């Protein structure tokens, strides 16, 4: 506990020093802006003697102070990582978006090309075996994302055959999670309930003029 307290105190001192440096740099920037505004005002009034004093005296001095302060901050960055950041980068933006959307930061930071190249590895984390099925599905998705498929058509249409427990549904769930970051973006329909010809209306909705036309079907409502 005592060791942790010492480390905390050390980091606090570093943070305070960095904060003071940033604030000092900001103060100099504000002074430079004020001087430039004053110079513009003097130029409009035609007071060129005072303008020259600021332009060739005070302004260069402030710019040198700012340059020295920024050089010290850059040197500190090279020596060790800073605790206090003054610029927003990709990681910070991804973190904020992740909190709002629930999408993991790693997914947002990962490039599209890298993600697609590792698609089989991702799917195999959940689907054991079925190498050919995983490969064919991955190839179809990559072709679509690369623009080699018709953009007006679906990514792919797949028919998985096999007994219970071989991974048909699990592969679909893994694919939905890979593409849309959630299994909730998958629609599952038990087709054993639609074996009769007349039951198709329950799937896509009744045609115009028939009872239930405005209600929609199981599939169309789910997609909607």
UniProtKB/TrEMBL annotation:
GO molecular function, one term: ATP hydrolysis activity
A Pfam family reported for this protein in Swiss-Prot or TrEMBL: AAA_2
Superkingdom of origin: Eukaryota
Presence of keyword Coiled coil: yes
Ranges in coiled-coil conformation: 1-86
Keyword vocabulary terms for this entry: ATP-binding, Chaperone, Coiled coil, Nucleotide-binding
Name recorded for this polypeptide: ATPase AAA-type core domain-containing protein
Species for this entry: Panagrolaimus superbus
């Amino acid at each position: 506990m005592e060791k942790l307290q010492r480390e905390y105190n050390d980091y606090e001192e570093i943070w305070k020093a960095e904060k003071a440096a940033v604030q000092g740099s900001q103060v100099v920037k504000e002074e430079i802006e004020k001087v430039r505004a004053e110079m513009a005002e003097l130029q409009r009034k035609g007071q060129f003697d005072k303008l020259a004093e600021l332009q060739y005296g005070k302004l260069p001095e402030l710019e040198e102070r700012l340059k020295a302060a920024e050089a010290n901050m850059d040197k500190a960055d090279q020596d060790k990582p800073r605790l206090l950041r003054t610029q927003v980068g990709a990681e910070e933006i991804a973190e904020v978006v992740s909190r709002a959307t629930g999408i993991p930061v790693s997914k947002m930071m990962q490039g599209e090309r890298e993600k697609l190249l590792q698609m089989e590895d991702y799917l195999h984390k959940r689907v054991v075996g079925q190498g050919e099925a995983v490969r064919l599905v991955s190839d179809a998705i990559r072709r679509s994302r690369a623009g080699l498929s018709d953009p007006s058509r679906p990514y792919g249409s797949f028919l998985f055959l096999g007994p219970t427990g071989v991974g048909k549904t699990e592969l679909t769930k893994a694919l939905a999670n890979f593409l849309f970051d959630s299994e909730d973006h998958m629609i599952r329909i038990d087709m054993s309930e639609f074996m009769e010809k007349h039951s198709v209306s329950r799937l896509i909705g009744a045609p115009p003029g028939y009872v239930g036309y405005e209600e929609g079907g199981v599939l169309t409502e789910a997609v909607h």
